[in-house]
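Run log // design_07
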């Protein structure tokens, strides 16, 4: 592992996409926090440790700007370059170590530096290099996104990582997946042997059981690296303060809505904490935080209340799913909570109106059922819908961005048949990726090939099933005959025509 500086490298990382890293989301976080930050619509942007490069390539395709990324794995860089070539975005990729990156004399000054999970996985020396890079190469007003495992939520879970490491070390050298399986079996053997640790630590027992459902690639990179760092928020804030950074916001927008997330006594306690670091630290105990997606800013200029309100009034929003997929229940730190349908039902209808056309808060307040809503309640509702993943801030885009996104999406649709499957389509209207089921991808694929009626679309997807040896399912039962498969596919094709096609048009995908 020395060539990878202690980072797990026996298997490649997963092909995940994280919209929180995108410039549009970072701008919205700044707007909600009342700070004018440099996550511009054409940023100079750097992702550290980009994995398979899905997020970096989506954001480079869907936005103007200068996008760059480094990852120490040559395999990751090669895979990401295949995607980059499909988009024509010109994203610049390298397999530099962080030290080598820092030593380069051709780096620009950046508007945004982002990293997903990296802070938890790299050595203390590399964390210092990251801080130095931010201090020296991030512009004033620039933002940093970093996500990481954190305390106190990991206090009872950290011993699981130790067991997995012990099991992995004891497994015979050879097949990497077999060694991961051996480490899981070792942990399970310890848990099954009337272990008092697991009996007295129910969260650890539940977490151990859940690891069987986790992608082995993720499990390996999350738990088996040489360096494993689970800090408190205050530790991270102190480290970044050395680079002139201040906490801006959680990128998980539901964390901003304390009344939704916490009981009244906890909200009152938080409101007494005037220091932002203290406030976030206390909040982590109140929700037993295990993972933080944080946004920091360097010398960000505060917006006046009037300027913030004007920008929010002008910010369009667009649904990223069909109306029937909007759920009025939200899961938070206290469990499930129902959103008041008196506000959210007409809001969802208004957002879906005019074939999902993006709309500003000013337009929404004039929609049926929302005429008497308070603007503050509407903004909170829009933030909630963004937070639960059914809505995004929208942006203007040009034909160049549309064409780059089309290139990415063609690759996605090819892989829907050939693999490896990618789960997101690139949307220039939101500057990022949109979750897309494989069935939606297959329907889109045949739509682009010219199929238009439900019968044509269902028959074309059935032809794909003949290649991939798949079947449709209805009521949990796999269909066998062609006739039964077509009968199951045709209602899905009708929904695709009625909802997905206009939605994808509004998102710039079609």
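design_07 sequence
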């Amino acid at each position: 592992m020395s060539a990878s500086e202690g980072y797990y490298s026996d298997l490649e990382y997963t092909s995940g996409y994280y919209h929180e890293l995108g410039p549009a989301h970072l701008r919205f976080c700044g707007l909600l926090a009342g700070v004018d930050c440099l996550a511009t619509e054409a940023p100079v942007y750097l992702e550290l440790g980009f994995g398979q490069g899905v997020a970096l390539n989506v954001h480079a395709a869907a936005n103007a700007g200068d996008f760059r990324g480094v990852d120490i794995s040559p395999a990751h860089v090669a895979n990401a370059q295949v995607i980059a070539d499909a988009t024509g975005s010109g994203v610049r990729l390298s397999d530099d170590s962080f030290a080598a990156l820092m030593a380069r004399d051709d780096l620009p000054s950046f508007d945004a530096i982002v990293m997903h999970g990296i802070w938890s996985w790299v050595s203390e020396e590399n964390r210092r290099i990251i801080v130095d890079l931010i201090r020296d190469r991030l512009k004033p007003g620039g933002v940093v996104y970093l996500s990481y495992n954190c305390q106190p939520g990991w206090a009872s879970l950290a011993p699981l990582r130790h067991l997995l490491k012990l099991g992995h070390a004891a497994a015979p050298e050879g097949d990497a997946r077999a060694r991961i399986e051996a480490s899981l079996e070792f942990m399970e053997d310890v848990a099954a042997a009337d272990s008092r640790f697991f009996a007295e630590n129910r969260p650890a027992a539940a977490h151990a059981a859940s690891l069987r459902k986790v992608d082995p690639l993720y499990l390996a990179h999350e738990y088996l690296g040489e360096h494993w760092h689970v800090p408190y928020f205050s530790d991270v804030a102190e480290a970044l303060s050395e680079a002139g950074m201040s906490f801006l916001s959680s990128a998980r927008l539901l964390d901003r809505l304390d009344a939704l997330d916490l009981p009244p006594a906890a909200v009152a306690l938080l409101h007494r904490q005037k220091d932002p670091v203290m406030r976030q630290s206390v909040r982590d105990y109140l929700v037993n935080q295990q993972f933080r997606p944080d946004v920091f800013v360097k010398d960000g200029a505060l917006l006046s209340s009037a300027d913030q309100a004007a920008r929010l009034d002008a910010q369009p929003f667009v649904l990223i799913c069909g109306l029937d997929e909007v759920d009025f229940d939200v899961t938070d730190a206290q469990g499930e909570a129902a959103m008041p349908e008196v506000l959210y039902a007409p809001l969802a209808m208004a957002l879906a109106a005019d074939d999902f056309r993006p709309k500003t808060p000013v337009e929404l307040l004039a929609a049926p059922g929302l005429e008497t809503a308070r603007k503050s309640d509407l903004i909170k509702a829009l933030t909630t819908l963004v937070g639960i993943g059914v809505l995004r801030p929208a942006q203007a885009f040009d034909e160049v961005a549309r064409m780059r996104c089309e290139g990415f999406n063609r690759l996605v649709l090819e892989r829907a048949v050939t693999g490896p499957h990618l789960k997101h389509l690139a949307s220039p209207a939101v500057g990022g990726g949109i979750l897309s089921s494989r069935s939606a991808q297959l329907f889109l694929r045949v739509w682009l090939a010219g199929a238009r009626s439900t019968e044509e679309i269902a028959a074309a997807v059935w032809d794909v099933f003949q290649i991939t040896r798949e079947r449709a399912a209805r009521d949990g039962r796999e269909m066998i005959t062609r006739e039964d498969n077509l009968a199951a596919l045709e209602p899905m094709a009708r929904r695709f025509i009625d909802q997905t096609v206009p939605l994808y048009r509004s998102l710039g995908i079609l």
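The longest strand covers residues 138-149.
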